[in-house]
Design a protein that fits this description.
The protein has 458 residues and is α/β, with parallel strands linked by helices. It has 11 helices and 14 strands.
Length: 458
């Protein structure tokens, strides 16, 4: 069996068509029609790289580790599959993954990094001049200190330099990543059509929200007369962006979602044309969502684990293993990906989380193995159980944690930066009404469950 995972970074679940959105995502929707769609999937560790560690290790880390390199004791998914004879590739434009210190290519036979996203120091030619004064994409915050302003000017200038390479739609990073993925599949399937592992990690629809035409006007209001603030400085929107500007920026984001979906479609079509789709598990998901002033701030400026940030789309499709058209609303988390994939491949996992067929001397830490802490979702997919956990737990390391179940969401600032919050999700899905004062027992119960859970993790 082959495994192809497609990640679209920063994708809000309420901006995917098959999850009830007005945003057009026909290719993601088609994938959901052919497989299973998880309606209550949550990120365990925020944000970008911590989530990938969650996917690739099947372990919880929010309680003791944040944004950091993979460690020697991390036994990664690509390494496990390498020992099973898989040919693998990581293809991505998430430029943080390209930084050598994070060793994200570990275990993959091939790593292809597409350069040029956001503030990636890709085009550094000093003779290429860009002008912040004439750029409509940015607005400096008045509340920034001089050093922060200097930092953001440098970031904007790097972004504008990278943009000088954009001559056509195919010059954008998402098309380049997809074309690299297709090229790898075409070259590899000449020799073999089984035991392929491809991880396609797209930075879009992460900011800057600058899709090409016509996607940059696909959802915008024709009466809007302001600037395209595609890359606002993270922080509070009060005294920085007007409601019209916020909505316009969110509409640009929606256009980028549809743009990415279009290019995902080319990859999905090519998988079928190569006649490997019947033997391939295709997974689509995201690492987290994106705040658009839902709670008064834009971008991931705060470690606040509200629904717009932690609630993610997750779809899996395999014609022989997964019944088509399933909607599952049980709680699942990013840590569940690795144990589920291993189970689908027939790699036995015992109750302690240990898995078979790993060569001991090849383990990163000698004879030790980090046991999986996530759940195998196959019993859920096969209808043998109706849930695999009673709570979802996660958060930002050393900053804020969360606990939620089907009814309640509890936010615990472990850094003491603000007061805890409690929300009743059925009546307040947007988490606008903090009811902790009227339901202290519920908050105390959820905090107890959260602290017991993290304590047991060690």
């Amino acid at each position: 069996m082959n495994i192809i995972v497609i990640v679209t970074d920063s994708l809000r679940i309420d901006h995917v068509g098959c999850y009830g959105s007005h945003v057009q995502t026909p290719n993601i929707d088609r994938l959901a029609e052919e497989g299973v769609k998880f309606g209550r999937a949550y990120s365990e560790n925020l944000a970008t790289l911590p989530t990938r560690r969650s996917w690739w290790t099947g372990q919880y880390h929010f309680h003791h580790a944040g944004w950091q390199p993979f460690t020697q004791s991390d036994d990664l998914l690509a390494e496990v599959l390498w020992d099973q004879g898989y040919t693998s590739a990581l293809i991505t434009d998430v430029y943080h993954m390209h930084k050598p210190t994070y060793n994200c290519g570990r275990g993959f036979d091939t790593s292809i990094f597409v350069r040029g996203q956001e503030y990636d120091p890709w085009i550094v030619d000093p003779d290429i001049r860009v002008s912040l004064a004439s750029s409509p994409v940015h607005r400096m915050r008045r509340d920034l200190g001089q050093e922060d302003k200097k930092l953001w000017r440098a970031r904007y200038e790097q972004y504008l330099k990278n943009c000088t390479a954009l001559k056509s739609e195919e010059d954008y990073c998402a098309p380049r990543v997809i074309k690299e993925a297709i090229r790898w599949l075409e070259n590899t399937t000449v020799q073999r059509k089984d035991r392929l592992f491809l991880w396609v990690d797209l930075f879009d629809p992460h900011e800057p929200w600058d899709p090409p035409s016509p996607y940059n006007r696909m959802y915008t209001d024709s009466h809007y007369t302001g600037s395209d603030l595609v890359d606002p400085v993270p922080g509070e929107v009060e005294n920085y962006m007007t409601p019209a500007e916020i909505q316009h920026t969110k509409n640009l984001y929606a256009g980028e979602v549809s743009f990415v979906d279009k290019w995902m479609g080319f990859l999905l079509d090519r998988i079928r044309e190569l006649n490997i789709d019947d033997n391939t598990l295709i997974v689509h998901t995201s690492d987290h969502g994106e705040p658009f002033a839902d709670h008064g701030y834009i971008r991931k400026a705060r470690p606040y684990n509200y629904e717009e940030l932690i609630h993610i789309p997750w779809i899996m499709r395999h014609p022989d293993i997964i019944p088509a058209g399933q909607d599952i609303d049980a709680l699942v988390q990013t840590v569940d990906m690795m144990p589920t994939l291993l189970k689908m491949l027939g790699i036995k996992i015992d109750p302690a989380g240990e898995y078979d067929n790993r060569i001991a001397e090849d383990l990163p830490a000698g004879n030790t193995r980090q046991p999986l802490k996530g759940c195998d979702l196959m019993p859920l997919i096969e209808g043998k159980v109706d849930h695999v956990r009673d709570f979802a737990f996660g958060g930002h390391h050393n900053r804020e944690w969360y606990a939620c179940n089907e009814e309640w969401a509890y936010l615990l600032p472990v850094d003491g930066s603000r007061q805890s919050e409690l929300f009743h999700l059925p009546s307040d899905p947007g988490e606008q009404n903090n009811v902790i004062a009227t339901h202290p027992e519920t908050a105390a119960h959820l905090e107890l469950q959260l602290r017991r859970f993290t304590g047991a993790l060690g």
